[in-house]
């Protein structure tokens, strides 16, 4: 039985005070949630998150990672730096990194490799644009994004990873994929992996992301191939995030 994971992606949001309040609120309500929970913070707040969450049931990580270990890469943060602050997760290939920061499939694959090399669990985001869904090429897009990882690291690498299917048209738009639309792509992803390694396919957690909230989480997480959610907007308020954790 795969465990359910609810992971928050705070994006470029938060302050020392708001993060303290948010995590205090989540911790206070957590006893009722029976699921794995993690938050992915802006780099600069990771030490604060570590201070608050160490010894609790909530994991934490970053929203990206450098593909490089050290050297002349101004502004970057490496896997060993994240490990210094005991991060467990690193999101790679989020659609905002792909579109706004021009990260290509190959860059995502290198970041995925860097995360694994340093003992972090990559949360690999894949998903199609609205035009791509309308063109009927969702599976081709997701397949191409997964192949970049499989080609570089081998399918077995996905056993140490989490995949997040995030249709780009559903991120931050309030438009959620229907549970069946999401399930179809999750089943496609698992089926594609199963053709290469049935064991890995069976184990890998595949999260859904895209306007998940307390009202729709239950139905989404009830689908057989949906193993939790990557949550943006609704991870910024303790009450909203807890409602999703409880639905899981
Ligand atoms: C995300 O950014 O990964 C995301 C799913 O955002 P939202 O929940 O706000 O759509």
Secondary structure elements and pairings:
Layout: E1 5-9, H1 16-29, E2 36-40, H2 46-53, E3 58-62, H3 79-84, E4 89-92, H4 95-100, H5 105-117, E5 121-126, H6 130-135, H7 138-153, E6 162-165, H8 179-196, H9 198-203, E7 205-209, H10 217-221, E8 228-231, H11 238-247
Parallel strand pairs: 1-2, 1-8, 2-3, 3-4, 4-5, 5-6, 6-7, 7-8
Helix pairs in contact: 1-2, 1-11, 5-7, 7-8
What does this structure look like?
There is one protein chain. This protein has a single domain, classed as TIM Barrel, CATH 3.20.20. The protein is globular and about 45 Å long. The model has no long low-confidence stretch (mean pLDDT 97). The protein has helices spanning 16-29, 46-53, 79-84, 95-100, 105-117, 130-135, 138-153, 179-196, 198-203, 217-221, 238-247; strands at residues 5-9, 36-40, 58-62, 89-92, 121-126, 162-165, 205-209, 228-231. Helix content is 44%, strand content 15%. The chain has eleven helices and eight strands. The chain has an eight-stranded parallel barrel with strand order 1-2-3-4-5-6-7-8, surrounded by five helices. With 248 residues, the protein is of the alpha/beta class. The protein binds phosphoenolpyruvate (PEP).
Nutshell version of this structure?
The protein is α/β, with parallel strands linked by helices and 248 residues long.
CATH class (first level) name: Alpha Beta
Terminal-residue CA separation: 14 Å
Shape: globular
Q: Please report which band the strand proportion falls in: under 5%, 5-15%, 15-25%, 25-35%, 35-45% or over 45%.
A: 15-25%
Oligomeric state of shown chains: single chain
The CATH superfamily is: Aldolase class I
- Rg calc: 17 Å
Order of helices and strands: EHEHEHEHHEHHEHHEHEH
What is the name of the CATH topology? TIM Barrel
Helical residues, percent = 40-55%
Ligand identities: phosphoenolpyruvate
- Helix tally? 11
Strand order of the largest sheet: 1-2-3-4-5-6-7-8
**Major sheet characteristics:** 8 strands, parallel, barrel
- Provide the low-confidence segments as ranges: none
Structural class: alpha/beta
Mean pLDDT: 97
The CATH level-2 architecture is identified as Alpha-Beta Barrel
Tell me the domain tally: 1
Give the number of DSSP strands: 8
């Amino acid at each position: 039985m795969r465990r359910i994971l609810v992971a928050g992606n705070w994006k470029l949001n938060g302050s020392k005070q708001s993060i303290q309040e948010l995590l205090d609120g989540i911790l206070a309500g957590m006893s009722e949630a029976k699921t794995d929970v993690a938050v992915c913070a802006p780099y600069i707040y990771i030490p604060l998150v570590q201070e608050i969450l160490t010894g609790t049931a909530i994991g934490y990580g970053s929203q990206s990672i450098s593909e490089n270990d050290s050297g002349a890469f101004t502004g970057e943060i490496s896997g060993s730096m994240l490990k210094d602050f005991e991060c467990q997760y690193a999101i790679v290939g989020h659609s905002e990194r792909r579109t706004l920061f021009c990260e290509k499939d190959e860059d995502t694959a290198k970041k995925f490799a860097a995360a694994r090399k340093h003992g972090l669990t990559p949360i690999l985001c894949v998903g199609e644009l609205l035009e791509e869904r309308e063109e009927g090429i969702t599976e081709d897009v997701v397949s191409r994004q997964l192949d970049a990882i499989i080609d570089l690291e081998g399918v077995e690498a996905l056993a140490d990873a989490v995949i997040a299917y995030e249709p780009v048209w559903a991120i931050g738009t309030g438009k959620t994929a229907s549970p069946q639309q999401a399930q179809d792509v999750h089943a496609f992803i698992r089926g594609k992996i199963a053709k290469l390694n049935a064991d890995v396919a069976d184990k890998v957690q595949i999260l859904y992301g895209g306007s998940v909230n307390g009202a729709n989480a239950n139905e989404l997480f009830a689908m057989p191939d949906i193993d939790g959610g990557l949550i943006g907007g609704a991870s910024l308020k303790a009450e909203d995030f807890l409602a999703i954790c409880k639905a899981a």
